[in-house]
């Protein structure tokens, strides 16, 4: 084989051939075995360049070019395609040779015709994608008008996202992002757009769960090269001495390359004191890394919209332009909080005494006490289970794990008492430092 070309270039020379001699075919197959089966898989002289360069940025633009056999990306684990296998799908030769053939025998070289299926598409909700996945099984020998294999790879995450209570506005926003990325519209010649994302919302609205789903989903799609998700706070990034903050921040960024760095309550990184050199050092390094590694890093920040805009984005003028994706998580309604509570009960294999044990009006009356939404529902359930344990002690086993309205009311009273106790402790600490 000519060493100046790649293995794929060599294969493509045979594209126009309709017939070849038995000897020529044997030589061809030997070349395939030597150059593909026995050489170092990462050698670009036969497989084509598709590994990332030393800076961690991706040097090619197509989905296949993101493939790296040494990557822990879930997409790489699920996807067996390489430059050679992609070529092989559209070029086929005789794989089984008759041993009795004369050396001058002629062997036909055929190009298989792939079955073509056009899927009628109208995507308005995540459910529309799930419907396509259910109706169309992915087959290797079929050519589709959409990337059906990738959709099947993220089926679990799509179901998880769709099953989350409420969040209709957020789901639509993530759907837009998904369709944009899966078509590689974010990738241009020798460049890639920012993937960094903001989740606006109150505590307890599921921001961490959403960030994890996004991370796994884009890892499986190959948009992110590694299945990495790291949630950090101010203490993970900022140190107490000048110079140490830079080391801590860069170490965290290095850990997250190829995946997601999630910063909840990101406004805690930005100090209202403009003389805080530690905060500035952290944010400046983060801002630079978001640009340097934009092909290979997704930073997701979360918190209240007003506070993020007034603190975090004001800390460095470059931050604003790096977060082009901004998703708003709406506050839960009383009926949605009721559904969250019910879901948590059933997930833990508990049940209710009656179907109407929980009523929407119960949550409507107390909604102002549940400022942290899903998080408060989890705490309420914990207290409900505690008072339930006291009530059924020594009684019939059939009563265990069956929640009554009295359990919920008593659990709510415990919820309020502990909430008041926490507030008192906060007030005491506040007065100490005044």
UniProtKB/TrEMBL annotation:
GO molecular function, one term: ATP hydrolysis activity
Keyword Nucleus (UniProt): no
Keyword tags: ATP-binding, Nucleotide-binding
AAA+ ATPase domain boundaries: 193-313
SUPFAM superfamilies reported in the protein's UniProt record: P-loop containing nucleoside triphosphate hydrolases
InterPro entries: AAA+_ATPase, ATPase_AAA_core, CbxX/CfxQ, CbxX/CfxQ_RuBisCO_ESX, P-loop_NTPase
SMART domains recorded: AAA
Family the UniProt entry places it in: Belongs to the CbxX/CfxQ family.
Protein name, UniProt field: AAA+ ATPase domain-containing protein
Organism encoding this protein: viral metagenome
